[in-house]
Give the backbone structure.
Amino acid sequence: MGDLAALRSRLSDLDSVVVAFSGGADSAFLAWVAHDTLGEGARAVTAVSPSLAPEELADCEALAEEWGLHWTTVATDELARPDYVTNGVDRCAHCKTELMDALAPLAAAGGAVVLGVNVDDLGDHRPGQEAAASRGAVFPLVEAGFTKADVRAESHRLGLRTWDKPAAACLASRVAYGTPVTLGVLDSVARAESGLRRLGFGQLRVRHYGDLARIEVEPDRLAAVLEARAEVLAAVKAAGYTYVTLDLEGFRSGSMNAVLGER
């Protein structure tokens, strides 16, 4: 069970922090607690790149204003890293390296870059965590024992509107391993997902396989996709896809990693 007092204590020990703030439930909770605990000693920084969905950037700005966070943005350029573009199974390591290279200089002397990694994240294929930790990133939610459910429950108790925000991840996580990550690919994914959100689908992923898009929604929304078949097809094809498929297993984080077990 996550311990809020322990989280505050750990942040106090760090004295000043830069929170990698993507706007998701975990980073938002961490940013709010850090701000509430450290005041001016906490900065929330959003890394802006083509892999960040436009809606997420807008929500980061809105949350920062609502909560009075000391918020800034910084540009990152993962696409300038050939090993990232190649999109091997270690893609996230190159992304987090780029992130830490951008955030570390913003940390005050003696301060730390903190990421919203929770205990549940430790069980998946997450090479980015190792890369970030090797560059000095700290994971206070893990140290305080917070699972994803704990983060949502505590956020709800604190009245944070992000408590039930759909899980988000960088757009590159939608691209099949081995398919190069390009600006055009990320734009297609972003446009397809934005179109589906406008149709009322909240928790979703559009997985990219060249001309084919694989849609994941929550299992109880599968029928709704079929009911809105024409609109769904129009939205996804407008993003550049030729073939549109619906994954009958439904939404699940990290589904692209299933192939790793097969290998």
About this structure: The chain is about 45% helix and 15% strand. The radius of gyration is 18 Å. Residues 160 and 228 are 32 Å apart (CA to CA).
